[in-house]
Amino acid sequence: MDTIQSYRAARLKDLSSKASAVKNVRTDDDGDILMDVTDGDGDVTTFILTKLEPTKLLLVCAASLPDDYAGAGLLATHIWNNRKDAYNTFAYVSDGGTLRLESHLSTVGGVSEDHFISWVEDFSSKIYPFFYVFAKTVSEVGQDSSSSSGFNVAREVLKGGARGAGGEVVSRIIRALFDDN
């Protein structure tokens, strides 16, 4: 079994295509690997695989955040990052208003090809639950301009923890997430 410490783009492309949910692997103009992945409910999402350094890889799934849902996006990423099943991922809203889920892989010391493929498959398995958390959060807090104001709830939670009305909404979202699973 080969261990790999520093990947070349052609090898990353080849290995990525071996992950079970991955289809249509290609390289963009910047040398990043783009792969279409089928998630848990059959939707196709594009992942971006980037070499941050010779021995650090980044896998990203990004989606445009709908207008007027910044609060729901911030709250959903907060909830996701605190879930026990979110390990090896990190969610956030970018400066440009993009909802992002990332995973990093260090290849220092080498990793097996099977480990790389497993990393891609594990990340693929997180997409449906991540967007489910976002959808549930949106359904509970609504638009930023609504009376429940997702942005105000998220600001309250992120400012000092889940207190008051913010805590009630977070608790309701978490209960709804677990009751439906």
What's a quick, concise take on this entry?
With 181 residues, the protein is an alpha+beta fold. The chain has five helices and eight strands; from the N terminus they run βαββββαβββααα.
Protein architecture, described:
The chain is an alpha+beta fold. Helices cover 43% and strands 27% of the residues. The chain has helices at 9-16, 70-81, 113-141, 150-160, 164-180; strands spanning 3-4, 22-27, 33-38, 44-53, 56-64, 90-93, 98-106, 111-112. The strands form two sheets. A six-stranded antiparallel beta sheet has the order 2-3-4-5-7-6. α2 packs across α4 and α3 packs across α5. The termini are far apart.
- What is the end-to-end distance? 38 Å
Compute the gyration radius: what is it? 18 Å
Strand percent estimate:
25-35%
Overall mean pLDDT stands at 80
| Total of DSSP H or I helical runs spanning 4+ residues | 5
Give the helix level as a range of percent. Answer: 40-55%
The overall strand count is 8
The backbone outline, from C-alpha atoms, is elongated
SS class: alpha+beta
Main sheet strand line-up:
2-3-4-5-7-6
Low-confidence stretches: 162-166
Instruction: Give the SSE order as H and E letters.
Output: EHEEEEHEEEHHH
The major pleated sheet works out as: 6 strands, antiparallel
Which properties best describe this structure?
single chain, 181 residues, alpha+beta, two-stranded antiparallel sheet, 8 strands, elongated
How is the topology of this model organized?
Elements: E1 3-4, H1 9-16, E2 22-27, E3 33-38, E4 44-53, E5 56-64, H2 70-81, E6 90-93, E7 98-106, E8 111-112, H3 113-141, H4 150-160, H5 164-180
Antiparallel strand pairs: 1-8, 2-3, 3-4, 4-5, 5-7, 6-7
Helix pairs in contact: 2-3, 2-4, 3-5, 4-5
